[in-house]
Amino acid sequence: MIELSVVRDLVAIFGVIAGFTYYVLTVRNNQKNQQLTLETRQAQLYMTLYNTVYNQNIWDRIIEARGYAFTGYEDFMEKYGPNSNPEAYSKLQDVWWFFTEMGVLVYRGYLDLTDCMYLVSSSPLDVWIQYEPVIEGLREHHYRSGAGHISWEYLAKTMYQTYYSGGLDDVYAEFERAIPDISLPTLEEFTTLSREKKKQT
Question: Where are the domains of the chain?
Answer without folding.
Answer: 1-56, 57-179
